[in-house]
Specification:
It holds the Pfam family UTRA. Residues 14-81 form the HTH gntR-type domain. Keywords: DNA-binding, Transcription, Transcription regulation. InterPro entries: Bact_HTH_transcr_reg, Chorismate_lyase_/UTRA_dom_sf, Tscrpt_reg_HTH_GntR, UTRA, WH-like_DNA-bd_sf, WH_DNA-bd_sf. The chain is 24% helix and 31% strand. With 248 residues, it is of the alpha+beta class. It folds into two domains: 16-78, Winged helix-like DNA-binding domain superfamily/Winged helix DNA-binding domain (Arc Repressor Mutant, subunit A, Orthogonal Bundle); 83-226, Chorismate lyase, CATH 3.40.1410.10. The strands form three sheets. The protein has a six-stranded antiparallel sheet. It has a two-stranded antiparallel ribbon with strand order 1-2. The protein is elongated and about 70 Å long.
């Protein structure tokens, strides 16, 4: 950065908010562990002799990059390390417990969705949290003859545990499709992120004994998750793609 000290914001050709952004970036990467609070806007403005607007602009850029996250009413924090999304059949509840986090779920409502030939699928929409932090919004459809009375069960815990206990359903096969998406206003509100923030979207059709029971789409926060896949040159033939394996 031409004409700027590593720890000072000076007059010059480089905008002050850009200089401050790089100072804060070094602070985040070298000094502060994940989840740490950064100094307040007032403290930063006084420390570096800049305006609050300059501080807000520098912080906003780092929030957009995923290095910082704002928590309403609490302040701005260094982002936690991203979690690996598991590409095998495991429930959200089991996955969070395996990581040492406390999973919770808020039921966002359930409805019956019309299907062809007069049948109705059971629809469920839920917000998934870990240690109180919203991580994903789920929307699932279930075969009504396989899970009669599903909407009468407690849907705030592990749905897979409920399926196993009440219907003896344990999925043994699934097709999963992944794509990127920008958060709409409602999804952003539920997840506590900005509108148009990055999302990882998973659509999974799960079966037991060859019969599809669940069609689940999950919107995960892109600043909290990443996906790593092992690729093999020799891939076994897994059969044809399902008819509804793509976006809903």
């Amino acid at each position: 950065m031409t004409g700027a000290s590593p720890d000072r914001v000076v007059d010059g050709p480089t905008p002050k908010h850009t200089q401050l952004r790089e100072i804060l970036r070094r602070m985040v990467e070298r000094e502060l562990p994940p989840g740490s609070a950064i100094p307040s806007e007032r403290e930063l403005a006084e420390r570096y002799d800049v305006s609050r607007l300059t501080v807000r602009t520098a912080i906003g850029k780092l929030v957009d990059e995923g290095l910082l996250s704002r928590v309403r009413g609490k302040g701005t924090f260094t982002a936690a390390g991203r979690m690996e999304l598991q590409l095998y059949l495991m429930s959200f509840t089991a996955d969070m417990r395996r990581r040492g986090l406390v999973p919770t779920t808020r039921n966002l409502g359930a409805a019956a969705l019309g299907l062809a030939e007069g049948e109705e699928a059971l629809g469920i929409r839920r917000l998934r949290l870990a240690d109180g932090v919203p991580l994903a919004v789920e929307r699932g459809w279930y075969h009504p003859r396989a899970v009669p009375g599903l909407l009468d069960l407690d849907l705030t815990g592990s749905l897979y545990a409920q399926l196993a206990e009440h219907y003896d359903i344990r999925f043994d096969h699934a097709w999963q499709t992944v794509w990127a998406e920008s958060a709409d206003r409602e999804t952003a509100r539920l997840l506590g992120i900005r509108t148009a923030g990055p999302l990882l979207v998973f659509r999974r059709i799960s079966s037991m004994h060859g019969k599809p029971v669940e069609d689940m789409t999950s919107w995960y926060r892109g600043d909290q998750y990443q996906v790593t896949m092992k690729l093999d040159r020799n891939s076994p033939d897994s059969g044809p793609l399902p008819e509804h394996g793509g976006r809903s």
